[in-house]
Design a protein that fits this description.
Length: 120
């Protein structure tokens, strides 16, 4: 399974990456909108883990581009804010499959990614 993580905090991105790699996934970590879109142009991904609070761009622009360029890729949104807690993210992004708090345990996030990645 190929996974793109879009996370501004490099420590958190690496933590998630290690957990996903232990499950056998090939994982690329991107820190901002520009590099995430470049990754989507260059490679195919089964799942995208996208922090809604990334610095350096808009996570919704990344999601929008992914829905155009990689329509089969599932997006797991992660956030530490209550914004979109009403579920409206699923109306805005056709690829959205999960919405979890940033404090989710890394092994739980890896299980969510694995589940949705196998379904795609």
């Amino acid at each position: 399974m190929d996974v793109l993580i879009v996370e501004s905090n490099p420590d958190l991105g690496m933590l998630w990456q290690r957990h996903l790699q232990r499950q056998g996934s090939h994982v690329v970590v991107s820190g901002d909108q520009t590099s995430a879109i470049q990754c989507l142009q260059d490679s195919d991904f089964d799942v995208i883990v996208l922090d809604l609070m990334i610095e350096g761009g808009s996570p919704l622009a990344v999601a929008d581009y992914a829905s155009y360029r990689r329509p089969h890729a599932k997006i797991v949104f992660v956030t530490n804010a209550s914004f979109f807690s009403d579920g409206s993210i699923f109306q805005l992004c056709s690829n959205a499959c999960a919405f979890v708090p940033a404090a989710t345990e890394p092994e739980d996030l890896a299980a969510i990614v694995d589940y949705h990645g196998r379904a795609s």
